[in-house]
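Q: My labmate handed me this sequence with no annotations at all. I'd like to see what the chain might look like in three dimensions before we decide whether it's worth expressing. Could you predict it?
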Amino acid sequence: MTIDLKQLRYFLAVAEEGHITRAAEKLGMQQPPLSQRIKAIERQLDVQLFRRKARGVDLTDAGRVFLDNARTMLADYERALQSTRRAARGEQGELSVGVMPTAFFHPFVPSAIRDFRRDFPGVSLSLDECLRAEAFERIQNERMDVAFMRTTGYAPEGLVIYPLLAEPMILAVPAAHELAQRDRGKPLSLRLAAQATFIVYARQLGPIFYEATIAACRRAGFNPRVGQEAPLAVSALNLVSAGLGIAVVPQSLRRMGLDGVVYRDLKGELPKAVLGIAARRNDPSNVVRNFLTMIRRRAKEANARS
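A: Here is what I predict for the chain of 306 residues:
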């Protein structure tokens, strides 16, 4: 016969009080019904759990074994119940987060991830570096939940990109280049770089910065002379450091402090480097919903301060 949770609690109260009347008061019931329920449990198990005394009850050997098991079963049930409730609230589970290489240099991204891990310690969060096309493919195939990326434009079917923050584009030039010293302390016009060789990066897998560079140069009145192409922005900065050209990069990459590279602010009408986050549209996961809600709220607060 099966013993249910209510019966376990009846037994546990009597075992801990050592007295049926006091256990009945603790449970908010009368003594006779509780006595009947204890006898019913004993009949179901076909064992004697208590020895009746003049002033209470003692556990038998079988009763002491059943007490240990009853406590374990009730504790397991409570843990399972709490775990289920945490999962329903999105406080427990797993979250896979993709990050484009340039996105992690924006202080917003690591800060937001730290805050989420602090607020939702029951969520196992994993990070994976990826470019835009790869991130889209992995989110669509449910091998990734969300991805920080440098685009807010077209999203593949079933996905959505939420814009978060925008930052200026700046110029990375070799330390020995004339633009490194020209009008120091003042923003430069991109037109001054018309004769320079431009290093572009991530043209195939994440073309947002390639497109931004070409658009900015044409808006400044010239078609850029493109030299070597790099797979990533960090790789492009290494080429700048080696003196192979200049590159237009998001302002947050200034944090790299790479030897041989000087960062110059730009003036005029220039495209912004937009940080967004991609996810499946109407994802049913409460963990994902909590993450997106927190990220978008923090971005809104940051925009309000700027």
